[in-house]
Amino acid sequence: MLNAIKAEKNLRQEKIEINIQNLSKVYKTNNGSFQALENVSLYVKNEEFVSILGPSGCGKSTILRILAGLEEPTSGSVQVSGEEVKGPSAKRGMVFQSYTLFPWLTVRENIEFGLKLKGMKQKERKEISDRYLELVGLERFADSYGKELSGGMKQRVAIARSLANNPEVLLMDEPFGALDAQTKQSMQQLLLDIWKKEKTTIVFITHDIDEALFLSQRIYVMEARPGRILEEIDADLQLFQDGELVDVEKFMNVKKHIISLLKH
Amino acid sequence: MELQKGKRHQWTLFKIREDIPKKWYFTGVSAAFILLLLIWILLSNLKLVDEVFLPTPAAVVGSFFAALSSPEYWGEIGISVYRVFMGFLLACLLGIPLGILAGTFKLAESVILPVSEFIRYMPAAAFIPLIMVWAGIGETAKILVIFIGSFFQLVLMVADDTNRIHKDLLYASYTLGANRWQVISKVIIPAMLPKLMTTMRLIMGWAWTYLVVAELVAANNGLGYSIMKAQRFMDTESIFVGIIVIGLLGLIIDRCFAYINKKLFPWAEGGN
Ligand SMILES: Nc1ncnc2c1ncn2[C@@H]1O[C@H](COP(=O)(O)OP(=O)(O)OP(=O)(O)O)[C@@H](O)[C@H]1O
Ligand SMILES: [Mg+2]
User: Where are the transmembrane segments (chain B) (predicted)?
Assistant: First the structure.
């Protein structure tokens, strides 16, 4: 019996959720064109946490915007849950590097924004927003406006707002990039806890090696000009336990390897 | 010790863009008005300038209250306020949707903005003779002058207000399941409302200016006309009264806008 459940879980987790094949993106600029992405191929399995790591300008945000359906690829194929991405959809939630709370809405109204668009009844909406307010620890700020919140709190609302929509995948574009070191650390831990609870597929963008190693199961390392994938790195190495680094040696080895990749 | 404290205090009054105690702010405001009044008293009461050109403050205050106690003067105020509001309302009714459209869709922008930009540089006052040919000197003519003066400016400013909304905010709403119409109605419009109010407040100021221009040239009633009439009789007191009344009306309306803005948009960043 237990084995059957385990087998089903494995099967589910082996399912490919995101599949990008030979993705290229060329931007028209004032003086000709600019190749932002060249032949990018990557996949993300169901319930997996994958990071895309690379220097500034290598096209990380471009990949994410294309995945979200906010921009069109120049060539290549982008599939999510077996369907070609044709435009933005609530199935693919996104958290941005900049703060994108709707300032005229309270924290709760922000979290309920997507639910309201779906036409969900208020009682149901409140149940869901209560749950996600608790998940990100902002119950006390349910009725506050964005201008009363700190950067970390704003990003927590943004995460809750995306998750409340129950998306198939969560796309995160350097969500903690603007936060101070301590806030960043607690947000990373919070995100891991949420991921384990919610079992969402997450694509996480960062240029912080430690962050990528701490959070993800796999990492794609990119280079810039043109944006290309250099290597796929297995990061599911039991480096951390309860948020503490336990295997310093292995951690340093992987980190050194990534640094050498980025340097070349 | 005492001296040092005083020095520190002075510094806090001159910090770049920092708040200062309310009483200091109030002192500054009063000082400016008192200074203005003093210069006026000096010039007129000491007869440095002939009374025909610059009446004394007392004389102006006298005719101010005389004017306000006459029903005819209230009639002039009424007709002027009516014209301003009609012209302004018309400009808003047409200009705000067009501005939002131009700030939202590039195609609409291409149709609306360059033309507005062009016409904006044609002074509305120069249209008055043309408008008189088209519409005579009835109410329509005056309202049209105010409309032309404020409409194109309004369209450009509203388009800019709309354009300033961060693209990520729109992207975020798309990824939350909003369609195009919902992005406009549920994000773009609420996001720009405080800025829109500020824009309308500015345009209101323009509308008053054009009202006076229109009434100076082509009217037989209204505040601008009463100023014009006073000039014919060298009645400088009444000219002053007219200017002050227009200024006060503008100030009252401006304060109303500011108050509404604060009440309606408590979430907006920054002051009003
Ligand atoms: N709309 C656009 N038009 C022209 N060039 C663009 C456009 N958007 C992005 N680019 C270019 O494409 C490249 C990749 O941009 P992108 O924002 O994806 O980088 P990134 O990896 O997310 O960088 P960062 O870490 O700084 O956020 C950059 O060199 C950028 O200048
Ligand atoms: Mg980026």
Answer: 24-43, 84-106, 118-137, 143-159, 202-219, 239-260
